[in-house]
Amino acid sequence: MKLIIAIIQPHRLDPVREALTNIGIQGMTVSEVRGYGRQKGHTEIYRGAEYRIAFLPKLKLEIAVPSARTEDVVATITQATRTGRIGDGKIFVLDLQQSLRVRTGETGDDAL
Amino acid sequence: MIDSGNTAWMISATGLVLLMTLPALGLFYGGLVQAKNILSVLVQCFAVACLASLLWFAVGYSLAFSGTGPWLGDTHAVLLAHIGRAAPHPGLAIPESVFVMFEMTFAVITPALIVGAYVERIRFGAVLLISGLWLLLVYVPVCHWVWGGGWLAARGTIDFAGGIVVHVTAGVSALVVAAMLGPRQDFPHGIRPPHAPWMVMVGASLLWVGWFGFNAGSALSAGADAGMAMLVTHLSAATATIVWMAIEWVRFGKPSLVGAVTGTIAGLAAITPAAGVVGPLAAVILGAVAGGLCFAAVVLVKRAMQVDDALDVLGVHGVGGALGTLLLPFLAMIGTGGVPSALGMTGQFTAQLIGVVSVALWSAVVTFAITKLAALTVGLRIDPEGETTGLDFAAHGETGYHVMR
Predict the structure, then answer these.
(1) Which residues contact B134 (CB under 8 A, 6 or more apart)?
(2) For the complex shown, is ipTM > 0.90?
(3) Domain range for A10
(4) Does B142 fall in a domain?
(5) Contact B192 A51 (CB under 8 A)
(6) Is this prediction's pTM over 0.90?
(7) CB contact (8 A) between residue B262 and residue A47
(8) Does B403 fall in a domain?
């Protein structure tokens, strides 16, 4: 099993959800997060004064998948979130040791 | 002789002016600070309003409006003694109780305006001490000089609704307090932006509506002067808003909400002293000048003077109020609906200039002394850790936004 963590632009959430649903991915966890990468924040101007906004709002998706689906899911997320501009985000893939569905006690791929 | 129409309007106007402090000014200022300081701003406005009300009852009203000495009133109406239920205020067709209350709402909002200078870093005890002393030593004497038959009234200085009495006093004093208190941590480059611009807009909108009570109510009657005051107030506000937005659009590429509503307040402050003597065309001209000049003043205070008058009380209120006060002799001659001064343009301008300069000096000197006293007794600044934590929790033990269920 793999845990896929995707940091994406907030406005790309719906396209990602739709694309993943279409390839049979049944769940994800979404968090509102802040951060910066090469985009390095932006400036906002209030009453003539510039304010440096270092941490920009992003969404963090966490999706646990059977190992065999990893490339598929990563490709789908990439396609749904890429605009080609700086700030599109990043995807990380981690090994996942165990999973367990609380209601039934199922574990491993059965719990995903 | 008490007139029911006049009385009905003045009671309504009084409600509108109180609305300007509670909650309008609180929201206007509260949206501009960081989320961790929202409650501190609201409680500062609320507490200053109540403190000023009690001081007005105790001695303020009497020293401002009872007696006609050049410098200060008398103590005849201390604790509002000798104010009967049925007696009209001398020279007016409204009960004295309504006049006391209407003027009380002005005494409430003026020290509350200064909150904008010291937010996010002051001790609450210092807020109360400075506000209380300031009301008695700055606001009350100046109110008497201009509106209570004092030396500026005798000199012919025109301040219809508070360009000098409210906005110059508060604006100049704000700068003095801000300079003595010192800037917020990370000023100027690390300051966080306004946490809720929408709240700033709601506050400014309520201020705009409340200002109809402030300016049209300052006619002290329900008639032609009140009607024209309302009209010119609205036009100045609308014009200054458009001008401020246009400046931002040209200079920064985008017109902002916070900028637009700041322009509104600049236009409202500028028309305040002039609302009784100018017509609609002059109001539009004044609003346009106010939008441009106050924008420049805000930038000047922050960048050139490097004083952390955090929410721009001097740049918006002080400069706006002074501008309207100084231009009104000329604006009264423009278009129809104006009331040209019997002193002539230059004579009236001299009276206006003396008013602005003397009141600015008095405000600066006395506020310096008061703030010094506060520094030596209760202390001015919260400790650095409290400033980092935020005044909401550090000073009041509360949190503005609990986002987790």
Answers:
(1) B111, B114, B173, B366, B367, B370
(2) no
(3) 2-111
(4) yes
(5) yes
(6) yes
(7) yes
(8) no
